[in-house]
Structure formats: structure tokens, C-alpha cells
Amino acid sequence: MFPSRETSAFLELLRAGLWQRAPQDMGHFPLSGREWEEVFRLARRQTVGGLVYQGLAVLPDEFLPPPALLVRWVAEVDAIERSNRRMNRVLADCYGTYVRHGLHPVLQKGQGVARFYDEPLQRVCGDIDLYFPDSAEAREAVRLAGRPGRRARGMADGGVCCVWDGVEVEIHERLIDVYTPFARRRLAALEAAEGWQSFRLPGAPGLEVQAPAPLLNVLLLNTHILKHALGWGIGLRQFCDLARACHSLRGQLDADLLRHTLRRLGLGRWTRLLHAFLVEYVGLSPDSLPCDELGHTARPLLDIVLRGGNFGLYAAGRAGLRTVWARKLRTSRSYVRNVGFAARYAPQEAFWTFVRLSKGQFQRK
């Protein structure tokens, strides 16, 4: 059972918008004005306002929010679409600049998974993540990104972040967020075997963008969710990204290879929990799961999602941390707080992630 009536209605509308279908359980409606305000708050905290708005579009008129809230929601979706158009322009400039300098960036997550949505412009965008398989190219990318007006800073996971025309761009030398020893060699072999997939970025005619091939993409999204779930937390947008990727890429990846890879990485139990969440709360059809790893319940993961919202930004104790060291200490403590969850679902990876990120936290200012 869900924690509240508002949460139930919110998830029902999210599923309706994500899959472009009518809500399957109308028992959550109608809602009072106060309840609608809570649904709107949840949608913003989870950065899925555009998707939930698409769910509103299929509600009968008598069940719609009050007009004043509906106007605010329309304005919210308009802002999301404008942000996406700007993001596409900045990505085209950034990516195109690197290509003109002879570099070979690979787009991770973000606009690379937005293409799997029915309405890509209504997916809330974040930053730009670029992976460079060649370390020398990654260093050159950092040099180019560090030009005047684009000050670069190191991150705890070893990446480098800069601001490119007002948008954060993160440069990575690691594609998959897995830190268990010896995993990197296995993943490098997998990258070499699977490779990349090209697509055209909206609004940038002639620009071919490289993204991870289907199996790598699903594995990347899987482990990205895990990394944040083990720390401050993770929001629903990342689960929607993975669900849309699984739906769009079904039939394009080797399920046996993916299952074998996940188990070799010690992520079989975690993936069963994750897949249960995608089916139970996000509405992904079991037929679209990338492999037959499926748990019986996803409630422990739902608790993490609702507690912290988007990347755990709303988690208790996170607000008001003014100094760098206070934030570093609190981030480390967040991993310790989730030790029970980690020990049950991904003990090996949780330990090495904590070691790697803690080391990075206290090496960088």
C-alpha cells in the first residue's frame, strides 16, 4: 500500500503520461485542492512534472486540478520545453566543438535517453555528461573546457565539471559507475565488443552524436541509479529513463549476456529489485525487461525515492550545509546510513563505491 492517497494519484498519473495511456485506477480521483498541491509538489521534487502533466491530459474534465494550479503547471511544462531546446543548442555547440578538434565524445544519459520518450521536450533535463574512451582525449577535452569563462573543477568520482554557456558539462573517463576491483577490465572488454550507436540531435542538422550501444546504455542507467540510491538518494526521473530505454531497445540487446554481466559484477540481487520497481511503480511491461531478473517487491527502493526526491536533494539534513567540508562529511555519512540497504542488495559494489567516492571527496576542494 502506498504511503498516501496523493502519492498513489501521483504515480498513477506518472504512469499514464510515461506510457501515453489512460490511468488504470481511477479510484484515486477526484482530489481536493490541497491534495492536488501535494501531487504538484511531488512532481517537481521528482523532476517529472512534464510526464505527470501528460497524465493530466487524459483525465476526465471533472477530475482535473483547480484552474489556478493548472495554469502554474502549464507554465512549468513550458519552462521544461524551453530548457530542453536550450540544452540541445548547448550540446550541439559543445559536442560539435570537440568533434572539430578531432575528439570522440560519447554522450551519457541526458539527451541521449530523452530520444526514447514520446515527448522528449517534456522530460526535465539536467546537465551534459560526456565520456571519452581515450584518456588523452579526456585530458584534451578538459583543457578545451577550461578556457576563460569555462572554469573546470574536479568531482569526487574522478570526473571534471565545467560550465559551457550556462550549462554544466561533466567529462568522464569511466562509462559505467562500477568500482569493484577487476570490474573495469571486464567492462572495457564489453565496451570494445558492443561499441556505440549514432543518432541525430534535434535542432542540429548533420551532427551525429555517439551514445552507448543498447546493452551498455541499459547497464549504464542501471548502475547510475544504484550509485545514487546508495548515497543521498535517487528520484523517479532516472527510473523513467531506464524504463523508456528498456521499452525502446527491447529486442536489440543480448539478454543472456546482460544477465551474465550483472551477476559477474555482483548486481543480480540489486537488478531484481530495480526491475521490480520498474514494473510495480513505473509501469514497464515485464515483457520489456532487458533480462528475466525480477524481484517480488520494490518497496525498499520506493522508500528511498520518496524520502529524498531528485538525487536526494530533499533528504533530511541536506539543506543548510554551507561549507564544503560539511557537505563532504554529510555525503559520506549518507552512505553509512544506507548500509543496511547496501548490505542486502549490492554489498560488494557498495563498499568499493564508498571507498572510491570518499577518497575523491577528501582529495578535492
Order of helices and strands: HHHHEHEHEEEHEEHHHHHHHH
- Rg on CA atoms, Å: 20 Å
Summed over residues and divided by their number, the pLDDT gives a mean of: 89
Number of strands: 7
Strand order of the largest sheet: 1-2-5-4-3
- Shape estimate: globular
Q: Please, how many helices? A: 15
The biggest sheet amounts to: 5 strands, mixed
Portion of residues in helices?
40-55%
Structural class label: alpha+beta
| Separation, N- and C-terminal Cα atoms | 44 Å
Task: Give the strand content.
Answer: 5-15%
Q: Uncertain regions: pLDDT < 50 for 5+ in a row? A: none
Could you walk me through the main structural features you see in this protein, from its secondary elements to its overall organization?
The protein is α+β, with helices and mostly antiparallel strands and 365 residues long. The protein has a domain at 213-365. It contains 15 helices and seven strands. It has helices at residues 5-19, 33-45, 49-56, 67-100, 111-114, 135-145, 183-194, 214-230, 236-249, 255-264, 268-280, 299-308, 324-337, 339-345, 347-363, and strands at 106-108, 128-131, 153-154, 160-164, 167-172, 196-200, 208-212. The chain has a five-stranded mixed beta sheet. It has a two-stranded antiparallel sheet with strand order 6-7. A hairpin with a 2-residue loop joins strand 4 and strand 5. Helix 8 (214-230) packs antiparallel against helix 9 and helix 13 (324-337) packs antiparallel against helix 15. The protein is globular. The chain starts with a helix and ends with a helix. The relative contact order is 0.10. The mean pLDDT is 89.
